[in-house]
Amino acid sequence: MDDFLAGSYSRDTAIRPKKTDDGYERPDVDIIMETSYSTSDDPDDVLQELSDALEDKFTVERINKRSVRVVTSNAEIDVVPVIAAGIIYQIPDRELGNWKYTNPPGHNDWSSKQNEDFDSRFKPLVKLFKWWRRENKTGKRPKGFVLEVLVAGHAPRYETHYGETFVKMLENIYAQYGSLAEAGIKPHIDDPGLPGNNIISKVSITDWKNFIERIRVHADYARRAQNEEDMAEATRLWRKLFGNRFKETVTAAKAESLAGYASAPVVSTSAGYTFPNQPVAPNKPRGFA
């Protein structure tokens, strides 16, 4: 049997964790555990047995739909039992009462390939998009891996200026889905790890329409910020997208890059606005995202 990391932590697309009620900033970590169960085993029983086993050494917070959540001083961990099914896996779904196909290693490989194709700009851009989503939540979903797929499908791959890349990505997403959303139509967006699976099947049409509308409005803000000569006004507009953690600097010319948005220290470029200059590990939250 095997176990391995999955989710945004393993793909290096996690952003700064939110502060919990007890004042801690703990990353969410997904751990996949290959088991000897079969699809004839009841998902609810499997998850309950896993919870009982974990309670011997960990604090179990709850049993989720497809995992067991445990809390440590350093992380909040979702432990996911799976059954090997060839090169992919099956995962229990206690609400549906059956097992669903999943492919976390395939998602990890796909994400790494995207980062290569974007010349290492993919993962920073995903973090930027996730931070925007956190600051501008319009519903429960879309989130997580869906945002990664949207970045891969709609961000310009060869644009090196992160501000321009982000603007064009929002514009491209709205151009692709805006008219459909206005008509009340939710598209099929293929899962790169499981072709044929729609990764937004769980997103309600209301949440999807609100998400696309926010993208429309913020694409306009971002374009205005990118074209703005007055740095104070440009900063004000960018903060509509990214919140007050978006740093203001005192230099006069336009930003060449938003690349280092994810951590401290802040570095002033030839710009009136910048992000800090190094990515931050999820277990050392500081800086912007």
Oligomer: single chain
- The averaged pLDDT comes out at 86
**What distance separates the N and C termini?**
35 Å
- The string of secondary-structure elements, in order, is EHEHEEEEEHHHHEEHHEE
Q: Please bin the fraction of helical residues.
A: 25-40%
Overall outline = globular
What proportion strand?
Answer: 15-25%
Report Rg: 20 Å
Q: How many helices?
A: 8
Write down how many β-strands occur, each being a DSSP E stretch of 2 or more residues.
11
Q: What is the structural class?
A: alpha+beta
Largest sheet: 7 strands, mixed
Weakly predicted, low-confidence segments:
250-287
Number of domains: 2
Short description:
This protein is of the alpha+beta class and 289 residues long. Helix content is 38%, strand content 18%. It folds into 2 domains: 3-102, no CATH class; 107-274, no CATH class.
Key descriptive features of the protein:
single chain; two-stranded antiparallel sheet; 38% helix; 7-stranded mixed beta sheet; 289 residues; 2 domains
Description:
- By secondary structure, the protein is an alpha+beta fold.
- It has two domains: 3-102, no CATH class; 107-274, no CATH class.
- The chain is built from eight helices and eleven strands.
- It has helices spanning 7-11, 43-54, 104-117, 122-135, 145-154, 162-182, 205-227, 231-242, and strands at residues 3-6, 28-34, 59-63, 68-71, 76-85, 88-93, 98-102, 190-191, 194-198, 247-248, 273-274.
- The strands form three sheets. Strands 1, 2, 3, 4, 5, 6 and 7 form a seven-stranded mixed sheet that branches. A two-stranded antiparallel sheet has the order 8-9.
- Strand 6 and strand 7 (98-102) form a beta hairpin.
- Helix 4 crosses helix 5 (145-154) and helix 6 (162-182) packs antiparallel against helix 7 (205-227).
